[in-house]
Amino acid sequence: MFPHKSILIVTDMDDDLHAAVVVDELKKRGERVVCLDPRKLIEGEVSFSIAENTFANLCPPQDAFSAEDIKSVLYRRPSVIPEDQRVNEEYRPFVRKEWLSVIAGLWEVLEDHGALMVSNPSHIQRAEIKLRQLYVARELGFRLPRTLVTNSVAQVSAFFANQNSILAMKKLRSHSIVAGEHSALFVTTLLKDIDQLEKANLSLCPAVFQEFIPKQFDVRLIVVGARVFAFKIHSQSNDETKIDYRAGKEKTQDLFHEQYEPPPELVDKCLKMLQRFELRFGAFDFVINQDNEHVFLELNPNGQWLWLQLKTGANIVEAFCDLLSRSPIPNRHVMT
Predict the structure, then answer these.
(1) What's the confidence (pLDDT) of residue 44?
(2) Mean pLDDT across 14-34
(3) What is the three-class DSSP state of 228?
(4) Beta partners for 149?
C-alpha cells in the first residue's frame, strides 16, 4: 500500500541505540528510512506551502524529505531544539520559540498527510502527566497504591499514620537530571520516619507518596501497536534492587528477566489506556504483590525496551518494524 514512501525516525541518532537497532532492521527489509535530529534542523531549511501548490519540505543537514513522502514516524527521544548561536543573544529565545512552533506543526502536518505516528509528541507529553495517568488508571479499574501528591508535611503526616508507618516516596516526573557533566538519578525511596521530611524541604516542591507494597516481582509490559510483551523482573534477588530495580545500575542488568503471559484483563486495560491517550506504544510498570495482583505504577509513553529484548530474546524490534512498515497484522486490538 505504501511501497515507495519513507519511514521517518526522529531522535538523536548519535545517542540512541534503540533507534539504531530499528533503523538497521528496517533497512534489511528494504525500507527507505530518513532521520531527523531537531537539534540540527535549525542549520537547514523548512518550507510549508498552504496555497494552490501545497507542500511541506524539510532540508536539514541530514536527510531531506517531504511530508507527503512519509508513511510512518517513530518519535523516540530527540534532543530539544537549541538556541541558535548565530543569532544575537537577546533574540535567541524568540527565534527558538519560532522553531519550536514549526516543529510542533510538523507532527500535525505529517498526520494530515496520512503518516502513522508512533506516537504524536503532543500525545506523549499529555500521557507523561503523572496525575492524569493515575486518574485514568483508576477509571479503567487498575489496582493502584493509595497515593498522595503534596508539598504539605501535615498532609504527609496524616497519610503516614494511616499506611502502617511506611511510605514509598517518588518524583512526579523526572527520574534524572543532567547539569553539565554531572547527573543524578532519582529512584523510589522509603519513608520510615516522618522526621525525614524535615531535611527534604518538602514545601519547596511537591512529591508523590504511596503506600508501600511488598512485592514478588517487578513487571514491565510493552505494547507496540497491537502486540504485547510482558516481563517479570526478579528484583527481590538483590538488596540494592528490592525497592526500585533501577537503583542497582549495573546490578539491574544481572537480574533474572523472563517473559510471561499477563492476564487478559490486564492487557485489555493497558490497550484501553493507550487508546485514551492516543498512543501506539507504551511501557507499563507494575509490581506483583503478595496476593499475585498486578499493581499499576506508571505508564511511560516513550520508555526503554531494548534491554528486555537482549535479556529474554523477545523480538520487540520486529513489532516496531511491522508497525512502522504498516504491515497488516490480524489482531482485533490494532489501532486505527
Answers:
(1) 86
(2) 94
(3) strand
(4) 208
User: What CATH number matches the domain at 6-118, 3.40.1350, 3.40.710, 3.40.50, 3.30.70?
Assistant: 3.40.50
Residue 85 burial class via C-beta count within 10 angstroms: exposed 0-12, middle 13-18, buried 19 and up:
exposed
Kindly state the cell numbers that stand for 230.
Answer: 510482558
Residue 285's pLDDT band, with cuts at 50, 70 and 90, is very high
**Domain residue spans in the chain?**
6-118, 127-142+214-336, 146-212
Picking from 122-126, 206-210, 262-266, which range would have the lowest pLDDT averaged per residue? Answer: 206-210
Rounded Cα distance, 212 and 145, in Å: 8
- Rounded to a whole number of angstroms, the distance between the first and last alpha carbons of the chain is 15
pLDDT tens by residue, 48-62: 888 777 778 888 777
Tell me the C-alpha to C-alpha distance, in Å, between residue 209 and each of 80, 159, 192, 199, 242: 31, 9, 12, 16, 18
CATH number for region 146-212: 3.30.1490.20
**Residue 335, pLDDT score:** 35
Considering only the top CATH level, what class is 127-142+214-336?
alpha beta
Q: Is 211 exposed, middle or buried (0-12, 13-18, 19+ CB in 10 A)?
A: middle
Average pLDDT, rounded, for the chain: 87
Pairing status of strand 6-10 against strand 70-75: parallel
**What's the confidence (pLDDT) of residue 181?**
55
C-alpha grid cell for residue 327? 504491515
Work out the burial of residue 143: count CB atoms within 10 Å of its CB; fewer than 13 is exposed, 13-18 middle, 19 or more buried.
middle
pTM: predicted TM-score of the whole model, two decimal places = 0.89
Q: Do 26 and 322 form a contact (C-beta atoms < 8 A)?
A: no
Give, in order, the Cα–Cα distances in Å from 199 to each of 43, 148, 180, 194: 46, 19, 26, 10
In this structure, are strands 55-59 and 45-49 parallel, antiparallel, or unpaired?
antiparallel
- Dig out the grid coordinates for 227 from the structure: 502486540
Backbone angles phi, psi at 12, to 5 degrees: -95, 95
